[in-house]
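Entry for the shared binder. Reason: the reviewer on the internal report wants the predicted structure included alongside the sequence.
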Amino acid sequence: MHSPARVNKFHLWVHLQQTYALIRGCAQDFRFRSNITIEQFAVLWNIKYITEIRRKPVILTDLVSISLRNINSVSEIVNRMEKLGLLQKIKDLPDQRNVRLVITHKGEKAFTNNSIPNFKLVDRIFSTFNDNEVEIMLKLIKKLRKWILQDFHDNRFKWDPMIDDPANIDKFLDKLL
């Protein structure tokens, strides 16, 4: 017989997987009402956010760090976005191996047109929780993410604490809304 804690951990794993799949489904609904995918919106969001808080050019590895996705996956999304005219890759940095990622006029328009629907989607998904529950969930998810990154010694991702700074997030959201 397995201990209740062990069974609960397995249930938690299954529920996290299922919840992630459901959230992805909601994101797909966002796509059907939008002219860009949720991943493309996230790239635009991350470029704007990183530019705002770091005040320096954004390169591909910056997007890898903030999204915690592998470089090939992020590169594919960026390449598709460049073909769609949402982004431009500019080779003008001192290290010629890096390209600066710049949002085009078309990308800015797509971002602006999709910001409010994205905010509404996030609000709707988390409306089931009160403010205290949101804070608790956020603390627990951050704790889990930190432990996974440390315990599995995943050196692909260099986490920047500025990204998680609530003051930076709040300032950025104030500019958008």
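Summary line for the report: The first strand starts at residue 87 and ends at 90.
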